[in-house]
Structures are given as C-alpha cells and as structure tokens.
Amino acid sequence: MPFEELDLAAFAVCLTCGDLRDGAPREQRCGCQPRTADWEQQWQGQDIAGDLDLCVLCVRDTVTTRTRWSWLGCETCRHVSQVVGERYGHRSALPLGRHSIMNGGAIQPAAPTTEVVGALMAATRQWNALREWREAVFNRLAEPLRAAGPTVPLAEWQRRWPPSLGASVDAFDRYGVVPVPADLGSLRQAQIRFRSSPR
Q1: Spatial CA neighbour of 116 closest among 126, 106, 125
Q2: CB of 145 within 8 A of CB of 160?
Q3: 130-142 burial, b for 16+ CB within 10 Å, e for fewer?
Q4: Once rounded to an integer, what is the mean pLDDT over residues 74-93?
Q5: Phi, psi of 43 (to 5 degrees)
Q6: Using one digit for the tens of pLDDT, what is the confidence trace for 145-180?
Q7: Sign of CA dihedral 133, 150, 22, 10
Q8: Which residues of 99-127 are buried (b: 16+ CB within 10 A; e: fewer)?
Q9: Taking the model in full, what pTM does it have?
Q10: 22: left (phi over 0), alpha (psi -120 to 50) or beta
Q11: DSSP H helical segments within the chain, as ranges?
C-alpha cells in the first residue's frame, strides 16, 4: 500500500508505550494492545505489522515501517546524519536504517567469524542505544499530554512537537554521539531558528 493511501488523521500516539495505533485503511495496534489472529491476517505478506511509526531520533516525524528495509529515522534526521557523517568521512553518523546494509555495514562473505560477530554486536549496541534514547525523549515529550488520556491524535502530537530540520539538529546534538560541527552553517542556522521559536 503506497504511503499516500494512508489516512494520517486516523493515527494516534499511545502515551504509554510510544507506538502509533489505529490508522486506516488497516488497523495498527500499539504495544499495549492485544494481537489477535484476525488482526494479524491483514498484515500477511508484510515484514512488520504496521504502516507507520515515530522517528527513533527526533520522535516527531513519521517513518513507514512495512519491511525490514524501512528506516528508523525520518527523512530530516537521516539528512542530518548523512551531512554530519560525510563531514567525518563516513556514509552517515548514526545507524538509522533497520538493516545494517542500509547503514553501510555490509560484511564481506569471506570475513572471519570473529569480525562478523563483532560487527553484529556493535550494530546491536548502536540500535539498542537509539531505542533507549527514543524512549527517554518520548517520555519527556509525552509527559505534559498524559493528563488528557491514554492517546493523542498524531496530528495533535505533531502540532505540539512539530517536525523540522531544527528539531532534527537539536535531537542529533542532544543524542551526543557525534555533535553537529560548528562549521556546518546551514544545519546550525536551522537549529538556531528552532531554539528561538516557541515549543
């Protein structure tokens, strides 16, 4: 199903687990909801039982989640990661792809077993660190909204926490693994505009 066919107005953010739920034309369930055989039937043939998720870094914009080749980071966060990574001579600064090959981590078939195991363990540590980061950021952003109920419409979440280049730069800097260099003027200006705007 093309992204354009999704009814974004039908999605809600679960303020307990941080997953997106509801959705249309297929029902998406968050980690708090039961998964039944009837519900799983609609996702047959898809790697992941869901169409959409929040970005693992800024936790504001959305990413499609249908396959194991889907991104964990939104387009803007991936742009910041790529620009910063290239500044340091890498493909990207953070592993924002769901598969290691997407992050430039392809391992040669003839590589020694210890090298393969080491690379997989390093990738797993990076993904776990990003998931812990996402949980901490989500809880910070969700806290002022939790008094209103267990969920909030995705549109309301993004109205309260709008995605932007500045938000992605800010998240990247806060994550702190590789700071955005001061000489990357276009990214820095976006962050300055983001910090000076009301949140």
Answers
A1: 106
A2: yes
A3: beebbeebbeebb
A4: 87
A5: -105, 10
A6: 999 899 999 999 999 999 999 999 999 989 988 778
A7: negative
A8: ebebbebeeeeeeeeeeeeeeeeebeebb
A9: 0.83
A10: left
A11: 37-41, 75-87, 113-142, 154-160, 165-175, 185-196
